[in-house]
Amino acid sequence: MGYREEFIMHPGAKLHLDRIDPSYKGKQESHEKAAPLIAESLAQMGRLQELLYADASQSLLIVLQGLDAAGKDGVVRHLFTGMNPQGTRVFSFKQPSTEERAHDFLWRVHQHAPGRGEVVVYNRSHYEDVLVVRVHELVPRKVWSKRYELINDFENMLAKNGTRILKFYLHISPEEQLERFKQRLDDPARQWKISESDYSERLLWPKYTEAYEEAIERTSTKTAPWFVVPANHKWFRDLAISQIVADAMSGMNLKTPPPRIDLAAIRKKYHAAAEKGRRKNAWA
Ligand code: AMP
Ligand code: MG
């Protein structure tokens, strides 16, 4: 069953992030002991993704949100180890370009939504438009406050078109974030990841918390639920997310599609002569 029930935000429920322990790991004792469970979910996801691709009637959209160093990039790397790159895409949303800014906030996001048979991960998403945009007052309140409803309508439309949507908030503590910044600072291979704004954004932690709480409360729906995943332990985060994704994919009723040809007729027409050693030449 996995962690679905434990971390799902039921529509209408109140979210108090300060009451959720970012270091939670449930009954799991250690990474070593959880590793086989993680491997099992990844293998299951891989099998189901093949079916999703073959069936080509539905799609899956995974939204990742969280503060800097919460682990979004790590989850992307991890989730896809089990999947075939053919049929999957990741899109990382940065600050909007001039062209993107000239359109409505969902314009750029919609373009990258998964086509039938595809799995797409949004690393950041349209939620930035009610998070960073709200915290920094990049648009007035009367503009961003209307976006929750627009987001629900948009996601509902995608869902009605056959897209399963799963949204994850990676919940880390400020202490863990600072520790991860320090590790990046000390590791020459990862220093490129650090920017000074990472530190100045930290000072806005309470504002981001408030923005996340409202966004998650107002946009967790039956068709597009949010999951608040404790993410101080990277392995626990990976376990929870891979189980929730595998679980959702098994609920999609994916089946190997029936053949598009008459198998017996094709066997007879193209293979019978070769099997009886009566081929005229190599290609006929
Ligand atoms: P990173 O994820 O570290 O590559 O950084 C991407 C940056 O783009 C983050 O600081 C985001 O807050 C910012 N960003 C993403 N979407 C938007 C948006 N719609 N408006 C403003 N900033 C955004
Ligand atoms: Mg960053």
TrEMBL record:
The superkingdom listed in its UniProt entry is Bacteria
| Similarity annotation | Belongs to the polyphosphate kinase 2 (PPK2) family. Class I subfamily.
Taking every annotated instance into account, which residue ranges of this chain make up the domain Polyphosphate kinase-2-related?
39-255
Arranged from A to Z, the UniProt key words for this protein are:
Kinase, Transferase
Instruction: Give the InterPro entries listed for this entry.
Output: P-loop_NTPase, Polyphosphate_phosphotransfera, PPK2-rel_1, PPK2-related
Task: Tell me what this protein is called.
Answer: Polyphosphate kinase-2-related domain-containing protein
Q: Which organism is it from?
A: Dyella nitratireducens
The record's listing under Gene3D superfamilies reads: P-loop containing nucleotide triphosphate hydrolases (3.40.50.300)
